[in-house]
Amino acid sequence: MSRRFDVYEHPLKGAWGVAVEGQSITVAAIQNGELSQSTLKPIALAGEISKRVRGGFKKLPRAKYLATDLLASSGLLGWCFTETHPDLAMFGGSVLFTPKSHSDDLEQLTAQWCETLRKTSLSEADLQAWVDCLKRAESYLAAPRLHPAFALVLADWAICNQRFLSSEHENMPTRRPCELPTAWSEWLNKSFTTGTPVQSVLEQLEWSLKDVLLKSTSTHPQLNSEDGWTADTSAFAF
């Protein structure tokens, strides 16, 4: 289970955190991205905190999680304390996420998602790294900012299965990306201003507006007019 630490920081000596869970006390010290952890007996806790305060450490107002991330000082991956849950902090943060359920079969789900994601420009290394993160996840299944394909595929599954979906950005579309690609493209463009365009990923997934309209000709005969697939989009909400 992800622990939350009361964190004390020093401008030169790094950060020192303590997590108390009943009689179990975990201490974590971070300096220049390097982590050292130990356990502490309850009787020694007050003395250790007092020693840090006397040494110039100041307590931060909010508890934090222990996580790995790209360090601003070096640009390299290292340890840090963060207010973001570790499940949502992978690859520099998440675009959207859904709570993990005890009934989720991640072996089956990740295999299903990978089959879809391999249609896109995602590298196999990034795909496997995401799968590994999902299998380690404790509370949330998240789509990282690494590539828009993650967000599109996870959102499509979540909405299809009536799962709660959340994001820091407002006005997230409520219908599946494979049904409402234009709305999802516009919404995700807020998060993906560089890199692979969202529209290109939708085309790779065969979820573009053209794909949606072509697949709908059997149920919307008016789309079979001589003007082709652009003849009538009035049946679709964007």
Structure description:
With 238 residues, the protein is of the alpha+beta class. It folds into two domains: 4-83, no CATH class; 90-207, no CATH class. 29% of the residues lie in helices and 24% in strands. The protein has helices at residues 45-54, 106-117, 124-136, 148-160, 181-188, 198-204, 209-215, and strands at 4-10, 14-21, 24-31, 34-40, 58-59, 64-70, 77-82, 94-99, 140-144. Helix 2 (106-117) packs antiparallel against helix 3 (124-136).
Characteristics:
seven-stranded antiparallel sheet, 2 domains, elongated, 238 residues, alpha+beta, disordered C terminus, two-stranded antiparallel sheet, 7 helices
Topology:
Layout: E1 4-10, E2 14-21, E3 24-31, E4 34-40, H1 45-54, E5 58-59, E6 64-70, E7 77-82, E8 94-99, H2 106-117, H3 124-136, E9 140-144, H4 148-160, H5 181-188, H6 198-204, H7 209-215
Antiparallel strand pairs: 1-2, 1-5, 1-6, 2-3, 3-4, 6-7, 8-9
Helix pairs in contact: 2-3
